[in-house]
Amino acid sequence: MATATAATVDIQRLSREDYDRLVEAGFFHPEERLELVDGVIFGMTPQSSRHATAVRLVQLALQTLYGEGFDVRSQVPLVLGDDSEPEPDIAVVTGHPNDYASAHPTTALLVVEVADSSIHHDRRRKAALYARCLIPEYWLLDLVKGCLVVHREPREGAYTSRVVLREGDTVSPSTHPAAAVPVASLLPRR
Predict the structure, then answer these.
(1) β strands within 87-165, DSSP E
(2) Confidence at 179, pLDDT banded by 50, 70, 90
(3) Do residues 92 and 109 lie in contact, with contact meaning Cβ atoms separated by under 8 Å?
(4) Which helix (H) or strand (E) holds 106?
(5) Which positions ≥6 away from 129 have C-beta within 8 Å?
(6) Closest by alpha carbon to 166, among 150, 146, 138, 186?
(7) Can you tell me whether residue 98 is helix, strand or coil?
């Protein structure tokens, strides 16, 4: 009787430097929405109207909260180590946009991902990446369940604090504990 053997699959991981060279060389179509996470290039699904609206609502709320001295960036690269260059829906970084004219930021105070079809990727891969890179706070706005999952206290590649907030709740970024942002104001109308 023959025994089945499992096929092995080799995954060629890219460095961020290799990825940036491919981008600069025009290897990818300009309209492609891609990001590098742990050396793997992931295609991002096109945004629904609800997703785009939620990103804008979060951006507006955080821009109001964070003033001068902070840059609330939307869907632009964040350099996280030698093999990751995600494009979070929102990243709050210190400084002014001109501070990043020659290089993307390498950390953030707060990262927000809006998830509908990307929930698995955002909940698993991205959360682990942000925790490993010691991003102090990660919010996952889950459009399917209509909630905000707040992750804090990264340790050993995982967040040790996780709180689920609903429409009637408020959220305060750890850098602005006196603020109270209504979770309902971040969710698009149905």
Answers:
(1) 90-94, 110-115, 137-142, 147-155, 158-165
(2) very high
(3) yes
(4) none
(5) 37, 38, 80, 84, 86
(6) 146
(7) helix
Supply angle C-alpha 189, 162, 37, rounded to 5. Answer: 80
Integer angstrom CA distances of residue 133 from 81, 106, 126, 161 = 8, 9, 11, 16
Residue type, 45: T
Measure the CA–CA gap between 94 and 11, rounded to whole angstroms: 36
Beta strand 90-94 pairing with 110-115: antiparallel
Note the CATH number of domain 48-186. 3.90.1570.10
Asked if 91 and 108 count as a contact pair (C-beta separation under 8 A), the reply is yes
pLDDT in tens, 2-59: 566 666 666 778 888 988 888 888 888 888 888 888 888 888 877 889 999 999 999 9
How far apart are the C-alpha atoms of 26 and 61, rounded to whole Å? 35
How many Å apart are CA 81 and CA 104, to the nearest integer?
Answer: 12
Closest to 134 (Cα-Cα) out of 147, 121, 116, 152 = 152
For the chain, domain boundaries:
48-186
